[in-house]
Design a protein that fits this description.
heterodimer; A: 6-stranded mixed beta sheet; 5-stranded antiparallel beta sheet; 11 strands; globular; B: 7-stranded mixed beta sheet
Chain lengths: 110, 115
């Protein structure tokens, strides 16, 4: 099974940086995904990590340490539209199953 | 444009009635999934299907049933045996096993309310 933990809420100021941590304990590991979900909408894919290190995509970066069971999503130059829930998801040895954390609600204030 | 269509967006049912949620995709994806989302909880996997005419139970399959008669379609039936059916239901799909980094693509969800 999977145990995936993320903080429940975070608040930051427009233009600032926020780091959302995700820790996981899994019976096997085959990749970690980050999704963004606005209230009442479908989650949308942000990033994928399977090897240790940092993946950068514009204002968003994601980091993975497999030995520590740890990932973070870094959001830079925050904008009001970044206010959303951010979901960490881990794929286990069965390639077809993704397990999700409860999500971190980020509120960006002017 | 390709995508995943869930219908209806809002659904209301009386307790004791079965209800079927529709999910159609035109992305030519092999795998399809049903998740349930409740406030304060992560997405929980109900059922998933890797190919046509095959599906597996997820973590919370009790009280639900599915079918996969066509590649494009993966309907979910919420039966009267499901104790707490009121929730936001999300359907998703992805390419096959050979696409190891293929992300899930989600539909816009169906919000089911049972009273």
């Amino acid at each position: 099974g999977q145990n995936i933990d993320q903080p429940t809420e975070m608040t930051a100021t427009e233009g600032a940086i926020v780091q959302i941590n995700c820790t996981y304990q899994t019976s096997g590991f085959n990749g970690l995904f980050w999704y963004q979900q606005h209230a009442g909408e479908a989650p949308t894919f942000l990033s994928y990590n399977v090897l240790d290190g940092l993946e950068e995509k514009g204002r968003f970066s994601s980091f993975l340490s497999r030995s520590k069971g740890y990932s973070y999503l870094l959001l830079k130059e925050l904008q009001m539209k970044d206010s959303a829930s951010y979901l960490c998801a881990v794929r286990d040895q069965d390639d077809y199953k993704l397990s999700f954390g409860a999500g971190t609600t980020v509120t960006v204030r002017a | 444009d390709g995508g995943i269509t869930q219908s209806p967006k809002y659904l209301f049912r009386k307790e004791g009635q079965n209800v079927t949620l529709s999910c159609e995709q035109n992305l030519n994806h092999d795998a399809m999934y049903w998740y349930r989302q409740d406030p304060g909880q992560g997405l929980r996997l109900i059922y998933y299907s890797q190919i046509v005419n095959d599906f597996q139970k997820g973590d919370i399959a009790e009280g639900y049933s599915v079918s996969r008669e066509k590649k494009e379609s993966f309907p979910l039936t919420v039966t009267s045996a499901q104790k707490n059916p009121t929730a936001f239901y999300l359907c998703a799909s992805r390419r096959g096993r050979e696409s190891y980094n293929s992300p899930l693509h989600f539909g816009n969800g169906t919000r089911l309310t049972v009273t």
